[in-house]
């Protein structure tokens, strides 16, 4: 008994832990040997952390009217205001708001809308894709015809239509409070199609595999087979699509806010800041537009590059 216990303890000490196994995995090896993926991950992590800890990092609260001073308006970046002698790293806008602080707070809204919209699209698309691929018949026909019809319209127009309808049925006194949630609903409902199509195609392949037939023979319900057996095997392409869709959702939110149908002016996102900045671009106050636009570009580009690496790393044909 003591020899068996000693052997077990020896194996436990020599076997690598979970972190060591994860570090030695093919995915981690591919990440360590891809400089573009490492730089993209660093930029995305830096921007997300800056947005999360915005109240601690931002020198001012740009959305608190009590802290604003109109005398600080149009202060160039890296200079002290000639009236108040206050210093602003990235300058100020027309209302005297610190541009650096507005970018940090604006990123919080853009990232929240992007993540929430992608999660909504993912849940709807994966559910409908599983149903269409596994059940087939009239269920598949209805779901995929709806998807085909939606694909004939640009996603941004679908989002604008859904946003307009949802905002129209919202009571006027709650429109500003519900604007962010309506925006999430609009972007999420306009992006579910790509998830559904990919999951349906993967489900059509997986449902004819031996392990699914074995699950049917032992009496598993269709719902249990879809959730416990098929779903884990179709998550790799879903993860890649979700990563790329996050960048597209952030851009869609910025586009809607730039057009004036997105985030309210009381809680501006990066798109709203860009819309405000373009009004002053030709009058010499270039920094009001430039810095939010560069932040949006860096965020979307880094997420896209990270999604491209993830697609290649999870593709077994490229290994």
From TrEMBL:
Name this polypeptide is given: Peptide/nickel transport system permease protein
InterPro entries referenced in this protein's UniProt entry, alphabetically: BP-dependent_transpt_permease, MetI-like, MetI-like_sf, OppC_N
GO-annotated biological processes: transmembrane transport
Species of provenance: Roseivivax halotolerans
A family per Pfam: BPD_transp_1
Main location (coarse class): membrane
A single GO cellular-component term on record: plasma membrane
Location(s), subcellular: Cell membrane
UniProt keyword list: Cell membrane, Membrane, Transmembrane, Transmembrane helix, Transport
Family, per entry: Belongs to the binding-protein-dependent transport system permease family.
Membrane topology, as annotated: Multi-pass membrane protein
């Amino acid at each position: 008994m003591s020899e068996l216990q000693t052997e077990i303890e020896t194996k436990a000490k020599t076997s690598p832990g979970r972190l060591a196994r994860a570090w030695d995995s093919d995915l981690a090896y591919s990440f360590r040997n891809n400089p573009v993926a490492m730089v993209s991950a660093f930029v995305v992590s830096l921007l997300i952390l800056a947005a999360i800890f915005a109240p601690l990092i931002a020198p001012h609260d740009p959305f608190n009217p009590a802290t604003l001073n109109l005398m600080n308006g149009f202060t160039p970046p890296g200079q002290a205001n000639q009236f108040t002698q206050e210093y602003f790293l990235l300058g100020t806008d027309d209302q005297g708001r610190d541009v650096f602080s507005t970018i940090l707070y604006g990123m919080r809204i853009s990232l929240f809308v992007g993540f929430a919209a992608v999660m909504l699209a993912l849940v709807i698309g994966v559910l409908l894709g599983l149903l269409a691929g596994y059940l087939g018949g009239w269920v598949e026909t209805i779901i995929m015809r709806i998807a085909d019809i939606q694909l004939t319209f640009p996603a941004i127009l679908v989002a604008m239509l859904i946003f307009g309808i949802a905002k129209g049925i919202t009571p006027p006194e709650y429109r500003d409070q519900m604007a962010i949630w309506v925006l999430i609903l609009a972007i999420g409902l306009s992006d579910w199609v790509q998830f559904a199509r990919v999951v349906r195609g993967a489900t059509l392949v997986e449902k004819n595999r031996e392990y699914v037939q074995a699950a049917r023979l032992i009496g598993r319900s269709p719902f249990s087979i879809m959730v416990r057996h098929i779903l884990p095997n179709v998550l790799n392409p879903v993860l890649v699509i979700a990563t790329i869709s996050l960048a597209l959702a952030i851009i869609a939110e910025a586009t809607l806010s730039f057009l004036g149908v997105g985030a309210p002016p009381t809680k501006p996102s990066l798109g709203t800041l860009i819309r405000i900045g373009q009004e002053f671009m030709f009058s010499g106050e270039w920094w009001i537009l430039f810095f939010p636009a560069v932040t949006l570009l860096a965020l979307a580009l880094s997420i896209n590059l990270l999604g491209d690496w993830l697609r290649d790393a999870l593709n077994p044909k490229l290994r």
